[in-house]
Design a protein that fits this description.
single chain; mainly alpha; 14 helices
């Protein structure tokens, strides 16, 4: 919260120093072309639905079934939680785990789906960003922080996940430790007496369940393909935002690659957990990138704000409506633990 406060103060000072640029950007936003805004909103919504399809596809590998409609509603709700609350990312993750449990998944299968989704989405984003830099003609060695480091991290993330998936017994000790900590919290707060033997048995069940998930090549291909399309939906929203406020899209492959690289870098910057939803982080990265390509500051600011309104803040009201709807249908009721 302290870091967020400092960031807010810094943003306020920046706005004050560049006030004329922001007023010009506000004018561009007011006169934005509604057709392109509508296209961007539709592409953003479709992007989240496709990501929900990734979740359903991976969850089905463990034998549970979560319909695309319910998965989409839960994904919108989780997005609203992540964007609205401090520490919202962790809360949203727990929320989705409960939705997986509601769909019939046990603890190990729900954990596998959560980790797999958390590996596939950022890895695809990194590879798209690397592809953008390559298409733009920029040498990857010239961008060690923006490209090389995330690429190495993505490869390490993928390697670590598949190593654990092949040898789930590696999770036995950390799972036992986590369950014992949780049992300690339960004893402190509710007075429930849970022994260490129960923790060891629960960890063993978790490890067996986690290791029993073995998706075939077709399922992996579906998940990766859907995730590529999901990120592509947000890219379309960015292109629409640029045109809506009077910007010009490139006419050459290198220019398109640059835009893709700017988008990926901005999204990676927003993934750093400083402010809920990466508010201000993504916008700043987009403005810097667009200005570097020759776009004037006012247009860059307007395009970045329009993009974030369509791709991020549009999710919040939709998500809270989905949250309430799922709650009324009993989707937030805890399931009894699997035996």
């Amino acid at each position: 919260m302290a870091i967020a406060a400092v960031a807010a103060v810094g943003l306020a000072l920046f706005v004050a120093a560049e006030w004329s640029q922001f007023t010009d950007a506000a004018t561009l936003l007011v006169h934005a072309q509604p057709g392109w805004i509508a296209l961007g909103c539709a592409a953003s919504i479709l992007s989240i639905v496709l990501f929900a399809a990734v979740r359903s596809t991976l969850l089905a590998a463990g034998g549970a079934r979560l319909s695309l409609g319910r998965s989409s509603a839960a994904s919108f709700a989780a997005g609203a939680v992540a964007a609205s609350l401090p520490g919202g990312g962790a809360i949203a993750t727990g929320y989705m785990v409960q939705r997986y449990r509601d769909a019939g998944a046990d603890g190990g299968s729900a954990a596998w789906t959560t980790i797999a989704t958390g590996v596939v989405a950022p890895s695809v984003l990194v590879f798209i960003t690397v592809g953008g830099y390559s298409a733009s003609g920029s040498g990857l060695g010239d961008h060690p922080i923006g490209v090389v480091v995330p690429a190495v991290a993505a490869v390490a993330l993928l390697g670590g996940f598949f190593a654990i998936a092949r040898r789930p017994t590696l999770l036995r000790r950390p799972a036992t430790w986590c369950i014992r900590v949780w049992n300690w919290v339960r004893r402190r707060w509710s007075g429930t007496d849970v022994g260490s033997a129960d923790a060891a048995a629960a960890a063993e069940r978790f490890v067996r369940s986690f290791g029993s998930v073995h998706p075939d090549a077709a399922r992996w291909a579906s998940a990766w393909g859907l995730q590529v399309l999901s990120w592509a939906g947000e890219l379309v929203a960015l292109f629409a935002a640029i045109v809506a406020v009077g910007g010009v899209l490139p006419h050459e492959v290198a220019g398109w690659g640059t835009l893709v690289a700017i988008y990926g870098t901005a999204q990676l910057a927003g993934a750093i957990p400083i402010i809920p939803g990466g508010a201000g982080q993504v916008e700043a990265a987009l403005v810097v990138g667009l200005v570097a390509t020759g776009t004037d500051e006012s247009t860059a600011i307007a395009a970045s704000v329009a993009f974030r309104l369509m791709s991020h803040w549009l999710v919040v009201p939709i998500g809270w409506v989905c949250f309430v709807a799922l709650r009324r249908r009993g989707a937030d009721l805890p399931r009894p633990p699997a035996r």
